[in-house]
Specification:
Shape: elongated
CATH architecture of the largest domain: Beta Barrel
Largest sheet: 12 strands, antiparallel, barrel
Helix content: under 10%
Number of helices: 3
Strand order of the largest sheet: 1-2-3-4-5-6-7-8-9-10-11-12
CATH superfamily of the largest domain: monomeric porin ompg
Oligomer: single chain
Distance between the termini: 29 Å
Bound molecules: copper (II) ion
CATH topology of the largest domain: Porin
Structural class: mainly beta
Length: 350
């Protein structure tokens, strides 16, 4: 296998799990994703409309999403949209800024990307419409397909009195582990408003926890109400999803963690040392004699493991910690890192 193919395989193995991903959600459906505790999710949708010539004025429609996990399967978040369409609908509203705060509880199903049925409930409040809203989201993932559905209720839709229901549905089809196509439609149960729709090309950015989409839609904002009503103009744009792992900032506040040794008492004589840095075992092959020990030292800001194919290996090795393993029998001991399976090495014991 050539170097390029190796690198590509390594990147595929590094595909993030449990990170909020556009490979499992279409552009205008909130989906059932819930951020893990210790992670701040920042999603950025930017759509725009280019007016016909000669002016070609560009009108921007951004929506920012911030969310964080507060418990297992429970997250809170907020959406800020700066060019809401609700203002045209909501009489008396003086602002075009639409803010929605929400909580989400995933009441059924595993983390995002797992097979099977996922159900979540999302109570929300829309400050522009002064409306208590909510969504019951469902999706079902099987192989390359995710089918999505949403049942919504808006207490004061578009600023008017009188609650109204809305429904949405969508499909995400993954072409390969990096690329997916998605479509969806959502609408208030009302003959007088347009349905919102979207079509998107979604990609996982290799070797990163980020996803990116190129999208087309008629919905200016990504709130529960915004996903239920379209405008007559077609908007083009993108979404970028960024999970920020707070643990990675620990060195800013606590300095480097104290060195600890796992697997054997500190001071055990070692015959070889392997540094782990930049998601790599610095030495891929070491040779020792039976009865000797090898030490792995984690110089990365993230956790790694030394997991042997043929016998039990290390627990998670925190940053700045080391792991010592003693080899009693001759043989070859290939190993890898469980969170990063593309990290591999081998210990040859004579
Ligand atoms: Cu690792």
């Amino acid at each position: 296998m050539n170097r390029f193919a190796c690198a590509l395989l390594a990147l595929m193995a590094a595909a993030p799990l449990g990170a909020q991903s556009l490979l499992y959600r279409s552009a205008n459906l909130g989906g059932t994703w819930v951020v893990d505790p210790g992670v701040v999710q920042f999603n950025f949708v930017h759509r725009f409309y280019v007016s016909p010539g000669p002016s070609h004025t560009v009108i921007n429609y951004p929506t920012f999403t911030f969310a964080t996990g507060v418990a297992r399967n429970v997250a809170v978040g907020a959406q800020f949209a700066t060019h809401s369409f609700l203002i045209q609908q909501a009489s008396g509203s003086q602002s075009s800024n639409e803010t929605e705060v929400y909580a989400r509880w995933r009441m059924w199903g595993g983390p995002e990307g797992t097979e099977g049925l996922h159900l979540s409930v999302t109570p929300a409040y829309n400050f522009l419409a002064k409306s208590a809203d909510g969504e019951l989201g469902a999706d079902w993932t099987t192989g390359p397909l995710t089918l999505q559905g949403a049942a919504r209720v808006a207490g004061k839709p578009l600023g008017h009195s009188g609650a109204r229901a809305a429904f949405g549905g969508g499909v995400v089809a993954r072409v390969n582990p990096f690329v997916a196509l998605s479509v969806d439609v959502g609408s208030f149960v009302s003959p007088t408003v347009l349905a919102a729709w979207s079509a998107a090309l979604n990609v996982l950015i290799p070797g990163s926890p980020h996803t990116f989409s190129l999208e087309m839609s008629n919905a200016p904002t990504s709130t529960i109400q915004g996903n239920s009503i379209g405008q007559s103009q077609k908007l083009y744009g993108f979404e970028f999803t960024i999970p920020i792992h707070l643990k990675r900032f620990a060195p800013w506040f606590h300095g480097r963690p104290k060195p600890v040794t796992l697997g054997a008492p500190a001071g055990t004589p070692v015959a070889a040392e392997i540094r782990i840095s930049s998601l790599k075992f610095a030495t891929d092959t070491v040779r020792i004699a039976a009865g000797q020990s090898v030490r792995w030292v984690n110089s990365d800001p993230v956790e790694h493991t030394v997991s042997f194919d043929v016998e039990p290996g290390s627990p998670l090795i925190p940053p700045n910690a080391s792991y010592i393993h003693r080899f009693d029998k001759p043989g070859a001991y290939p190993y890898h890192c469980t969170p990063h399976p593309f990290m591999t090495g081998v210990v040859i014991v004579r």
